[in-house]
Design brief:
Blueprint lengths: L11 H7 L19 E3 L2 E3 L9 E4 L3 H6 L8 H8 L10 E6 L1 H7 L1 H18 L2 E6 L2 E2 L4 H17 L6 E4 L3 E2 L7 H21 L5 E3 L2 H4 L3 H5 L7 E7 L8 H6 L7 E6 L18 H14 L3 E6 L24 H10 L24 E6 L6 E6 L9 E8 L5 E4 L4 E4 L7 E10 L8 E6 L8 E3 L20 E2 L2 E5 L6 E8 L3 E9 L6 E9 L13 E7 L6 E2 L11 E7 L2 E9 L12 E12 L2 E7 L15 E5 L2
Helix pairs in contact: 4-5, 6-7
Length: about 650
């Protein structure tokens, strides 16, 4: 299984480039760096027990970069210095150095060690921490990875054990086996424990960052069943493919119990980075800023943004090492974030560790149920006070005996889904503050609606009814659509609709009569063809189709999904008015029609005079909100 695109392999010349390069490093540290860090509960601390939070960037593989210096436009060590150059506005306090298995196999461990020696020395000179990462992304249960991990750490772990500013990342991105949730975590822990023991024996005091299966996405289990070793941080990799609603449960909750290190995160824009993997596509406004807000809410989460370079995506710099700005690029956000937090949680800065003691917040207030439906409902609440003045970091919502849903503290509502019709439920909502203290639950009970009869049943037709005034359409029941939604003058228009269907299309006919000659009228059909009933139009098969009197093409509103090429409309003048007949092909909207299929529908008519809207009539939605909210549509059903 492969998720990332990898850099091209090292050329044969790389081996020659490093041939004969033996390290001149002595057994001890060459240059004294920042102080040794230790792990105390969920915090990382300096020798004076002040909490330290590492924030920085991930560089390219140094071996690859040194070999391919001609394509980088910047010497590797210059980039290393830039990332830690306060005068240039960069304030990284940790640099992550990924060492790929390909670099090791092509250049050899002597070349890798020479590069690491230089990096360790330079990091000490720059006063920053260095995270050495065995950057493999592969199965973790093979004899090959076992052999290679042992060989790598047998060489590297003791070599930098006395360098107080060096940390180790055991295995960058384990992939499979990943099925089974907690079971997969236990399988991973059994595999990784001997490797951890081996590193710990050779580097007794070095902090070690430990990943998890599925590209370090199972961090939540680290709090539930941690490894039996001291001095561990637990990594997570977060990219735009992760739904922001999942961040809190997956990575925020474990940070209440163990140190969490986001050793990879970042985003890029599809328009600017041809060939970037889909899981990287995001923007500053929609992903970067919410991500920063979420991370900053957890004071003990460490991070390294990827990548401080020009080639490996998501890259912070253009090919000429300029830092692009704007919503499509992450570099400016990373730089500003590092600058804003440069003095927070630094080694030697006297800062008390937040106590886990105190009073929990009060229960969430005014818990209530809104928008009850057959299989879903919305629960909402108000933010409770906290006796200690702490922020509420998250809410936990439990329906009956289900697993809790975890929400960020900025959210105060959530939809409850996969409910049964005509069933009573109990919902419990608790608040958790920044110390990890949880409130007593607030309760609310409610019952879902019974499965209601559809507002209309649409019969099947044996032939295309469009243009057939009597025989085909006579099987369809007419429905009045002359509910006056609003007007600024008395009007008495008569409007009816009827519909038929077959395996090819849905056919909708609207008849408008008693129309004054001076009136301009428009027939409008609303459809939610898969009955998803989302709060906004889904862009796929939620439709708002409009045709004016005498029109030959379908107009589409600003909210509708694109009208397919196979959709069509005809209009016909009738006695005292006119008729519109719509044809909507199922397949082009991803729907397979069967008897009993339900979907959302409404019919509206707009009346204009002299270009000004003077009235609107409808069939079902009396609030006149269907134009923006598909939940307001009626539910109709396909019949025999």
């Amino acid at each position: 299984m492969h998720r990332r695109r990898y850099l091209a392999s090292l050329s044969a010349s790389s081996v020659a480039a490093f041939a004969g390069c033996s390290s001149q490093r002595t057994d001890g540290p060459v240059t004294a760096g920042p102080p040794r860090l230790t792990v105390e509960g969920r915090w990382v601390t300096d020798p004076d027990d002040n909490p330290v939070v590492l924030r920085g960037v991930s560089l390219d593989d140094p071996v690859w970069s040194l070999e391919h210096a001609e394509v980088r436009e910047k010497e590797y060590w210059d980039a290393f210095r830039l990332a830690t150059d306060d005068n240039a506005g960069w304030h990284a306090r940790v640099l992550r150095l990924p060492i790929t298995p390909r670099s090791i196999s092509d250049a050899g461990m002597d070349a890798v060690v020479d590069a690491l020696d230089r990096a360790v020395e330079l990091a000490a000179e720059r006063g920053v921490y260095l995270l050495v990462d065995y950057h493999a992304s592969e199965r973790y249960d093979t004899s090959s990875i076992d052999r290679r991990l042992r060989s790598f750490w047998d060489r590297v772990a003791p070599r930098y054990a006395d360098d107080t500013h060096v940390l180790y990342e055991l295995f960058g991105a384990p992939t499979e086996p990943a099925a089974g949730g907690l079971g997969a975590w236990r399988t991973w822990r059994d595999c990784a424990t001997p490797w951890l023991s081996r590193v710990r024996d050779r580097a007794p005091e070095t902090p070690i960052v430990v990943g998890s299966p599925a590209w370090s996405s199972m961090t939540a289990y680290a709090a539930e069943e941690p490894f039996d070793h001291d001095g561990l941080l637990y990594s997570a990799h977060v990219y735009p493919s992760w739904d922001p609603r999942s961040w809190e449960a997956a990575f925020g909750t474990p940070a209440f119990d163990v140190p969490v290190f986001l050793t990879e995160w970042g985003y890029t824009a599809a328009a600017e980075t041809a060939g970037a993997d889909a899981h990287l596509i995001g923007s500053t406004a929609e992903w970067g800023e919410p991500f920063r807000e979420w991370v900053d809410a957890h004071e003990n989460i460490h991070w390294c943004a990827a990548t401080f370079g020009t080639r490996r995506q998501p890259a912070m710099f253009d090919a000429d090492w300029t830092l692009p700005d704007g919503d499509d690029h992450m570099g400016a956000l990373v730089k500003d974030w590092l600058a804003d937090r440069r003095d927070d949680h630094r080694p030697g800065r006297e800062t008390p560790i937040p106590s886990g003691e105190g009073s929990p917040p009060a229960s969430p207030e005014s818990v209530r149920i809104e928008e009850i439906h057959e299989t879903r409902a919305t629960v909402r609440w108000e933010r409770p006070p906290d006796p200690d003045g702490d922020d509420v970091l998250q809410y936990r919502v439990i329906v009956d005996d289900r697993e809790p849903s975890t929400l960020r503290g900025v959210e105060q509502a959530t939809e409850l889904s996969n409910l049964d019709p005509d069933q009573e439920y109990e919902v419990r909502v608790t608040a958790v503050d920044e110390r990890g203290l949880e409130s007593d639950p607030a309760f609310v009970r409610f019952s879902t609606l019974d499965r209601t009869r559809p507002a209309a049943v649409i019969p099947r037709t044996a032939s295309d009814p469009v243009g057939d005034e009597d025989s085909a359409w006579s099987a369809a029941e007419p429905h009045a659509a002359d509910m006056l939604l609003w007007t600024d003058r008395p009007l008495e228009n008569t409007i009816t609709w009827r519909a038929l269907w077959d395996e090819t299309a849905l056919y909708v006919r609207i008849d408008l009569t008693d129309i004054e000659d001076w009136q301009d009228t428009f027939a409008e059909v609303y459809l939610d063809l898969d009955n998803s009933r989302e709060e906004t139009y889904d862009g796929e098969n939620d439709l708002d189709m409009i045709v004016p009197r005498g029109g030959r093409i379908i107009w589409q509103s600003a909210n509708t999904a694109p009208i397919s090429d196979g959709s069509s409309v005809t209009t016909t003048e009738t006695d005292g008015g006119w008729r519109a007949e719509f044809t909507i092909p199922w397949r082009e909207y991803g729907v397979r029609p069967i008897v009993g299929h339900r979907f959302g529908m409404d019919i509206h008519t707009v009346v204009e005079e002299g270009g000004e809207r003077i009235a609107k009539f409808g069939w079902f939605d009396e609030t006149d909100e269907a134009w923006e909210d598909p939940r307001k549509f009626a539910t109709v059903e396909l019949g025999e």
